[in-house]
Specification:
single chain, mainly alpha
């Protein structure tokens, strides 16, 4: 199974499911049997409850944001070769720092 159920914060899921249940009950009571109105009111009420729960400083020891419950994936960097003690000199280093000659523009006219 791609989802590790042991890592799920079940308390957070239960609280959010309770908010959806309450929002759905209130939305259906206030809608007078109109399904579209009930769905709209439920969505608005859930958004209000979720924002109040996530961002109001209520001081409860429960998770308040999804970012608090999700652990970032850590990827180990690939192993690097240890640096040599002394730098290795190239076999044929270029020691001339003069610019190269261009045979097209550096032609001397013959007299």
């Amino acid at each position: 199974m791609p989802i590790d159920l042991a890592e799920v914060n079940w308390l957070y899921v239960i609280i959010l499911a309770f908010f959806v249940f309450v929002a759905s009950l209130i939305g259906n009571v206030m809608s007078w049997q109109s399904r579209t109105t009930a769905a709209g009111l439920t969505a608005i009420l859930f958004a209000v409850l979720f924002i109040a729960w996530s961002y109001y400083p209520h001081g409860l020891p429960l998770p308040t944001r999804l970012a608090d419950t999700v652990k970032p994936a850590t990827v180990a960097p690939p192993p690097t070769a240890p640096a040599p003690a002394t730098p290795v000199r190239p076999a044929n280093p270029v020691r001339d720092i003069t610019p190269p000659r261009n045979p097209v523009t550096d032609v001397t006219p013959q007299r």
